[in-house]
Design goal:
The chain has 364 residues and is α/β, with parallel strands linked by helices. The protein is built from 15 helices and ten strands. A hairpin with a 7-residue loop joins strand 7 (251-253) and strand 8 (261-265). It starts with a strand and ends with a helix.
Length: 364
């Protein structure tokens, strides 16, 4: 995923916190606890404390924060002239009220999962067709949204306010100070060390790259999309938001005519940096070959030379070398020299991470 920041002054890159955005990922964690094993206790206790009426209404619209993270949680990014998140949930809900009707409707229809709708006019028949494909709740919501967008906006505001009363106010008091501290730290890094260092500190999956005259922020996700931080329709700039509930997700708002937003997790598990999409693909392709699987079985038990492996499996040393080269490019095999012998051994820790890397990459 690419964000063009060519010519964007550093002062137009904002590290901030957003109560509404954090409510969105908290709701996601409630509905998708399998994505967030570290939040199991919080999710269980919070779900058990919800009043039945509120739980039912959350279920009525949960596709806004499960199938996709709706841009309604980032209303400041869609306001002309740009802006910052509010300091309270009430302020951000006021910003949501200020979104023009077309932007609000498009943001609330993201669950349709149709990128073609981002640019074309909203066509009710097409919207309802796509919503019906998603399910009866989505179809009913889409009908309400098309018939009475102001009513749906007011309904959502009241829903979020009731979440605040039920659990989120206490949650925000607990996690908010840590998020403020992280945003301040990254902002200081931006001012004193520059954009590249600040972006690098966000996540190993985010980096600044130079492409000729262009300067780009690349986010290593399986989603392929491009956007710009210099759209005059909303004002030049972009926002980075820390989240306590987000890991392993790395959320990027990239809708046309919205300022880009990157919502990055803090307090992630203390493991090695996440594998890139390309590295994960190389590893899975490397292990898909039956002979390389057999080589890995041998290399997991000890260190072997190319000749030893050739003798074991009855193939030629050049053929073994070709397979080992694939495994080394996938960073699954380590190499060390003992005298005139070169020994190869499986990196068991790297292989053990593949399951977690796969899940983190597809959820990122």
């Amino acid at each position: 995923m690419t964000i063009d920041i060519t010519g964007l002054p550093p002062e137009r890159i904002d590290f901030a916190v957003s109560p509404l955005a954090e409510l969105g990922v908290a709701l996601h964690a409630l509905d998708e606890p399998a994505h967030h094993p570290g939040l199991h206790g919080w999710a269980t206790a919070t779900a058990a404390g919800l009043k039945p009426d509120l739980a039912d209404r959350l279920h009525e619209a949960n596709f806004l924060w499960t199938a996709t993270m709706s841009d309604v949680f980032h209303p400041y990014a869609g306001l002309p002239g740009g802006g910052r998140p509010g300091t309270t949930l009430a302020e951000e809900l006021d910003l949501l009220d200020r979104l023009d009707e077309e932007r609000f409707v498009r943001a609330a229809l993201e669950f349709n999962c149709s990128s073609s709708m981002e640019e074309e006019p909203v066509r009710p028949a097409r919207v309802l067709e796509l919503a019906a494909n998603r399910g009866p709740r989505q179809l009913e919501f889409a009908r309400r949204l098309l018939d009475d967008p102001s009513g749906v906006r007011a309904w959502l505001r009241r829903l979020f306010e009731e979440c605040d009363e039920a659990f989120f106010a206490d949650t925000w008091r607990r996690v908010g100070p840590g998020l403020v501290a992280d945003a301040c730290e990254k902002g200081e890094l931006l001012r004193h060390r520059g954009v590249t260092e600040a972006v690098r500190a966000v996540s190993p999956a985010v980096a600044v790259e130079e492409d000729g005259p262009r300067r780009l922020i690349q986010v290593d996700k399986m989603t392929h999309a491009r956007t710009t931080a210099t759209d005059p329709a909303v004002g030049a700039g972009m926002t980075f938001l820390p989240t306590s509930f987000g890991w392993p997700h790395l959320v990027v708002l990239h809708a046309p005519r919205w300022r880009p937003v990157v919502q990055y997790p803090v307090g992630a598990p203390s493991v090695a940096g996440p594998a890139s999409v390309q590295l994960l693909q190389r590893r899975m392709e490397a292990l898909a070959h039956p002979l390389r699987m057999r080589l890995c079985r041998q290399l997991a038990r000890g260190a072997y030379t190319t000749s030893e492996l050739a003798d074991t499996y009855g193939i030629t040393p050049p053929e073994v070398s070709r397979h080992l080269s694939v495994l080394k490019k996938a960073e699954l095999v380590t190499v060390r020299r003992r005298g005139r012998y070169v020994l190869h051994q499986l990196d068991v820790a790297a292989v053990a991470r593949i399951g977690g890397d796969f899940l983190e990459t597809v959820l990122r």
